[in-house]
Amino acid sequence: MIALQARSRASRVGRWALCAALVSATGLAWADLPIEELKGGTRLPPANAHRLYVVDVAFNHMVDSRIHVYDGDTGKFLGLVPTSLNGHMTVSANGQDIYVMTSYYERLNRGKRTDVIEAWDAETLTPKYEVPIPNKRAQALNYRNYLRQTTDGELLLAQNATPATSVTVVDLKTRQFTDEITATAGCWSVIPLPSRPRSFTTLCGDGALLTIDLDAAGKPAAQQRSKPMFDVEKDPVFTHTENLGDTFYFVSFNGNVYTADFSGKDVQFGAPWSLLDATGKDRGWRPGGYNLLAVNRALKRLYVGMHPNGAEGTHKNAAAEIWVYDLESRKRIARVPGKGAVSMSVSQDDQPRLFTIDGSNVSVFDAVPTAPVFKTTIQAAGETAVQVEPQPVRSTP
Fold first, then answer.
1. For residue 114, which of 106, 104, 101, 129 has the smallest C-alpha distance?
2. Cα separation, 268 vs 278, whole angstroms
3. Closest to 339 measured CA to CA, from 368, 318, 366, 325
4. pLDDT of 134-177, one tens digit each?
5. Which of these, 323, 324, 319, lies nearest to 359 by C-alpha position?
6. Full-prediction pTM beyond 0.85?
7. CA–CA separation, 55 vs 100, rounded Å?
8. CA nearest to 55, candidates 3, 93, 90
């Protein structure tokens, strides 16, 4: 036994000596390589519209949330981005950067808190820079409209909750925090407007929409508050919304669709319409989930996660079916198995795919046919994930 222990110690000493010799031979020392300067040794394959970002909140160890990156066509795992405590993400409009808002505590789960916006290279999955922001950002489950880029691509907007609500503005050119917009108190989510380069709207507690216009410095220049779009007591809506051009679609807990058109100076609301069949055959079916909607803009189709036996409190239920609607006729055109989806998204390329996630597994559907055709499942794509995002179709930076 003594001889074995001696040989073991000698082996360890030998290994450390070899490492030291290699370091000496290269002229480097470990102290010369701080982790912040390490660079990725590989580059991901060129991104197409089916690259997927699975945002994993990691319920059982939330200080270690992450973004898993997959090839949505082959299901191949490509890499991950660590996002610390309950990180939120959005991919830049040009597809080159992954923006993350997150929090760090100096003792991992306690101590001094630091909130930051991080920019990661989407090709190498390495950090590029970070911007300190006020310690107010929303530490909440991952919804798409909690971290968004303005339409001109120059500002990043982050939802705050202390629990008082406000919005943090970061200038992506100067890489600086510019302002905290407190006029959004009592309102929730950040919804950039396609035809207004530096404007966003947010959903308020009385059913109204508050629109904020930002100036060249990223500070509020004007605001408009609409009349209530819906009755918050009788027919509350999900905060998740998707758009077709300047028209945004909101779905209520009871299955009604509300539209808000921002093409003019003032928002215009259309007449609400129901997801349910007028004959009563769909009685008991309701929408449910987190990011429960998707819109394909070329096909002009709306996808919604639906569950039967709906009642008060079932609005987070997973999808038993996915219902598909033609947005021009407002008619349901297909029903397909929902595979337990709690969130979904759809790519915007000429061969669109519908991606759903059940908290762990990603289901991939061909979205070209009227009724999406199931293709494959990416097993264990996340531990506890409620957001799946496809790569934006690339545009000129």
1. 104
2. 25
3. 318
4. 999 999 999 999 999 999 999 999 999 999 999 999 999 999 99
5. 319
6. yes
7. 11
8. 90
